[in-house]
UniProtKB/TrEMBL annotation:
GO terms for molecular function: ATP binding; ATPase-coupled monoatomic cation transmembrane transporter activity; metal ion binding; P-type transmembrane transporter activity; polyamine transmembrane transporter activity. Its main location: membrane. It is found in: Membrane. GO terms for cellular component: late endosome membrane. Transmembrane segments: none annotated. This is ATPase type 13A3. It is a multi-pass membrane protein. It comes from Nothobranchius korthausae.
Amino acid sequence: AGVFCISPQRINMCGQLNLVCFDKTGTLTEDGLDLWGVQRAEDSRFCPPESEVVEERMVSTTFVACMAACHSLTKIEGELSGDPLDLKMFAATGWILEEPTEDETTLHNPLMPTVVRPPKSPKAEANQNQSCEIGIVRQFPFSSALQRMSVVVRRLGEKQMEAFLKGAPEVVASLCKPLTVPQNFSDCLESYTRQGFRVIALAHRQLESKLSWHKVQNLSRDLIETNMNFLGLIIMQNKIKAETAGALRELQRANIRLLMVTGDNMLTAISVAQDCGMIHADERVIIADAVPPKDSNP
């Protein structure tokens, strides 16, 4: 047995390491996310958790419409492409994404939007007046600094446009009308993050009827992402890689300090660290908030 290395000097450098930093998602955990379930909010209260959103009773809900429309997915050579979380979320709805063809945009209507719609069913065909087809009029991409993204949409046959918002639960809740956020929001969120789940919140609001397509294109996202109605939570599961715990044990036996660097929820990160052995269940964890220095003062 031996060590094969294309740059032998790296072996000597490794002998001097005393600290290794790991990203969480895709390094300690699997690359993909699985939808564990959703928890909708109605009348300022959380409904019981639901594992499926493709059921007939869910198709016409605003919650599922938000899941299907609030993303940055596109089609490349006929295949959906985009953020893995968006792909999982959209796939869970069972909806279909249709983008205008090159001929449609150049010859007919350059403003033709991307459209999402649920798959056709006998019940939907029998009542064509209640279409769930949604056109995405404008998109505000996800910003890591803002921890959210949003879209402006128009339903088929409707004149008034709507806004859908998706992002970090605390951020989304802060942009919603307080009366629409369940009183046990913080407790519910903490219960999921302590179990290591990744949680995304959704929100929605009707836009002013006077807003036209052209006006929407010139609005800042701050004017759209405000006074929202809280819709609920999407709970995603990110499993730890099978080899993670063993690799970390080897490093710990070599007296190498281990750190996790992540932008995820703090309690989710702690749960993952405990599950993979980076910290032990009986160890004390201190959570601290750091702020940048002002005027050269620490």
